[in-house]
Amino acid sequence: MTGFGLEKWYLDCVSPDGAVLVGYAARLKWGPIGLSYGAKITKERGGEPSQRQSLSFGKVSERGHTISWVNDRLKVSGEWTDGAPIATTTVVDEPSGRIEWRCLGASCAVDLRTDGRAMAGTGYVERLTMTVPPWKLPFTELRWGRFISDDRRNHMVWTDMRGRTPRNWVWVNSGEPVEGTVDIEGVRTENAELVFLSSDPLRGDNVARTLLGRFEFLRKLLPKGLRSIREDKQVSSCVLAMDGLESTGSSINEVVTWGPA
Predict the structure, then answer these.
(1) What domain range is 108 assigned to?
(2) What are the residues whose beta carbons fall under 8 Å from the beta carbon of 153, sequence distance 6 or more?
(3) How far apart are CA 82 and CA 193, in angstroms?
(4) How many domains does the chain divide into?
(5) In the predicted model, is pLDDT for residue 101 greater than 80?
(6) DSSP state of 134
(7) Can you give the pLDDT at residue 221?
(8) To the nearest 10°, the Cα dihedral for 43, 81, 211, 47?
């Protein structure tokens, strides 16, 4: 089948007491197949992560400096406000398709409700659109993450792709992207260093299995290359050193690997 298209929103929040919410809203078009999807991962400090899925996109809307996300089936609604945007970046542009990435808020103030409980903190929103099928991507490993200082004055976003066509971008306070080194200890650029002090897992498993959850019966319909993607996501307490000053905060970061198609 041809005509692959994916729109995926990613939203997150970390509260001052260490609670975490990660949200997804996605629409997939692949030939005659159309699928909407929503999911959330929640975790209390010191607790185990919990995940829910729904075959519902919910509603994502932009109004001024606020991005809203509502998914009644997931029992979540919230607003991400006054985050620093990053200009749209073409991540992949090849005959097999394109990927365009846009960060709408790298350092948002967040107010939300999930399962009837209020939550507030710092957060991040991005939107990804892609027409290249995941099993045809020109890389085999992706390291991605975002850091927000507790006072929201500093932030860092990074994307490090490894494989046939390596690509590397690091944005510090939404400036022009620079190259950096990304590893298990943190992220380093010429003028900034982010160190992961301690980390807790949010997800570590096959992407298709964990995303689909109780809809895992749909996994057999996916191409082998998509079924073999693994994601290891964590929340980390961090310190950012830049311009002779240090700021503490939290990051959500992940390593995604692709098996053979």
Answers:
(1) 4-257
(2) 247
(3) 25
(4) 1
(5) yes
(6) G
(7) 47
(8) 0
